[in-house]
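User: What would this chain look like folded?
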Amino acid sequence: DERYQFDRRDAPWITSTPAMDELWRQRVKNDYLSLKISGKTSDEITKTLSDRYRQIKRRVHQFTNQDVLTIFVNAYLASVDPHSRYLSPRARDNFKIRMSLSLEGIGAVLRSDSDYTRVLRVVPGGAADIAGDLKAGDRIIGVGQAEDEPMVDVIGWRLDDVVALIRGPKDTLVRLELIPTGKGPDANSKIIRITRDKIKLEEQAAKMSIIEIKRLEQPVRIGVIQIPTFYIDFEGRSRGDSDYRSTTRDTRKLIDELKFSNVDGLVIDLRGNGGGALTEAISLSGLFISSGPIIQIRDARGRIRPRKDPDKGIAYNGPLAVLVDRESASASEIFAGAMQDYRRGLIIGEPTFGKGTVQNLIDLDRYSEDDSPVGQLKITTAQFFRIDGNSTQHRGIVPDIVLPMTVDSETQGERGLNHALPWAKIAAAKFQHFSDASVVNELLSAKTAHEARLAIHPSLLFLRRNAAL
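Assistant: Here's the prediction, encoded as structure tokens.
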């Protein structure tokens, strides 16, 4: 009669080999009994567990010194602050890709499939798509650089190591050895050649749509701009590129298109947007007000500095709504908070994540003794406050129109993280509310209508009853 402890987060560290062996014996016994209860035979159980443990062993042996360092440093940083972390050189490169929405490579989404690297899909318009030889489902078993470099066997490699081999500078050649989709492991392989190019990651870029509805029997056209993240190509901007991408630049173009289409109102959809560049949250907010402060930042010395709208113009002054949910965080909360404080737009959805801190990147390569890449530190250096003086930390943004939630908001977001800073408040900044009274009146009318709808709409009543359980 034994017990096996699945969750060992609060258990003491095992300090001897016999104790480790005993824990492993209990693990194997538990796994065996679980499969036995599910109806498998002894031979099936032996094969399943042998394959499972072989995969575990393979993954453990693939850990590098860099992996161990990353885990150790981030474990320490997490004990101080939930948003400070160490970025290895590879993680730093991936961070830059996410921020710029571009990379140099072949344009294919890959995933691990047992010992193989399988092509999940080919990015439309990318180098692989234009070459036409790489297909979804193909398995990559070898990677070679240029025409004369030897082919490297990548069977059993970690996915990120394979990706690092395939990526490379624009206009350089990479050779891939493939087992075509639908073929068995013993099938003849083939070699294809792809010239790398700059790949734009459009999935995370701002995009627009138009919804047509009827109001009092009259057609109403609502423009919707979905913003998955706050991105900016920092390197492109530093180089002075005229076409560098950013959330604000892309959104301004989409607004112009929607205005040309004569929309009657605009919705900015920030659901699931976990944040990004602080500068983009500020400049995006400036598209909807003429001038004034957007956010206040208090540094580690207690100094408070307002960050103002960098553009004195206004891109759109019509009816505005902002959609948020429990995953809308950081830069999303800056934008939503500014629109709410200026009474510029109606905030709709769930209370947001509640992240009110600012992180800066510290380049560690300059401290390298042998010029090898070291990575970056992302460190919390400041806290931001709304222009009304309230922090978004812990509390987030409470929408003007709160939709019923099916989960407990007190356990979501920043409120559920260890070592997070507490909520705070400072003096309000000087600012003036949005001057278009007709827009404000429309927003107040919409809020009143929602309160009435909550009491009678079957779907909303159902959600409210479930939330109360």
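DSSP finds twelve helices and 19 strands in the chain. If you want, I can go into more detail on any region.
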